[in-house]
Amino acid sequence: MKKLLSFIGLALISSSLYSQGSPDYGGGLKLNLNQEGDKYIRFILWDQFWLRNTQMNPGSMVANEPTDNSWSLGNRRLRALVYAQISKRYMILAHFGINNQTFINGGATGTTGTGGYGNGKKPQLFFHDAWNEYAVILPGEAGKFSLSLGAGLHYYMGLSRMTMASTLNFLTLDSPIFTWPLIDNSDQFARQLGMFAKGKYGKLEYRFSLNKPFATDLVPVNVTDPARAVAVDNNGNPSFSKAGYVEYQFLDEESNTLPFKVGSYLGTKKVFNVGAGFYHQADGTRTSVNSNIEKHDITLVAVDAFADIPLGNAKHKMAVSAYAGYYNYNFGPNYVRNLGTMNIAASDPNFTGNKAIAGPGNLQPVIGTGNIVYAQAGFLLPNETEKPKIRIQPFAAYTYKDFEAFDKPSSQFDVGANWFIDGHHAKITTQYSTRPVYTSPTESPSSKGEFIVQFHIYL
Predict the structure, then answer these.
(1) For 316, left (φ over 0), alpha (ψ -120 to 50), or beta?
(2) The organism sits in which domain of life (predicted)?
(3) Is CATH 2.40.160 correct for 45-76+135-458?
(4) pTM as predicted
(5) Per residue in 225-257, pLDDT tens?
């Protein structure tokens, strides 16, 4: 009976990843598999629901109705993650769910029209992660050095801290997306199939992986002028990709049990890290000049820094969170990907003005050959009560992009606030974001905006 109660009981575990700012939550939902509690199954469930108003790009329509502004609702993420520590060395993990379901799109493949399988309904549940790993050298067995090896569909994709960001505890409302530079082209929702090594040497943390990218087959547009060639994702039988990220943790050390990097600790840790990473795949894209196909390597590098520091007297519970990164992307000549999170619009065939190059709705040039500078910062306002009803964290972010495909660079910003009901476990986020709108590759872009309210909860 004692073992049975231990197995089905809830336990509190120490985990920096899943207890930011919520002293009542502890380690969440965990089923012990032995009395000692070092063999267990851990469950994590979460949902992020958006209410949004979007200024549409010129030439947009929603449900066959031309519009320049629209309200929408949608499930940005609805997911479950389970991992099991079978022994002190062996762990398995599965992560599945849905993303980007709106009232009109994001449903299962083939859903359309009206009815039980109409627009936006019954989205496909799929695996985001599925891997196992073995701790070859546990912490303490070889001095400062530790090493784990794993394989499967995984998130150890190198490049930057935000490339491996947790979606549970962003500082801003969401990722800037460009930090997942292969998103749903040669990866599966920021994951690839492969093998990885992770570990630490003192305050130095490392992650490396060798992967087989998903095959892509976009056909490049043939041009006669090499300067006008545009690279597209076409890797044929893909070469293996290599990725890695190394960071030095100057203050408190972070957990590396799972790959997911925390966006804001809300003052529960004192963190300052500096890191650098890369991603490389040979012959990942192609161009066509005078009907001659040329292959191009994908080479991506980044350097970044992250800080989460409590401020002032501890009783005020103030903290500052900040991140800054420089990203240099080379996908081949003039490469650009236009993306729009939960874009509900289609192109209006009767529009006679200058349409956005990116397309309708909230599409924008997100990823491309060139340079990106990104920074974000937030401040957790003081509160001296022992159990405050609401904690408030205003934040702002800035993105500068200089892509080869455009003569003029772009700047955009996000500004908003997190309204914490129970740390990151229950919060409401309000955010206003701008995006660049190019109608000509030679002219400076104009700007459009979105206002979003996110209702976020996880167990």
Answers:
(1) alpha
(2) Bacteria
(3) yes
(4) 0.94
(5) 999 999 999 999 999 999 999 999 999 999 999
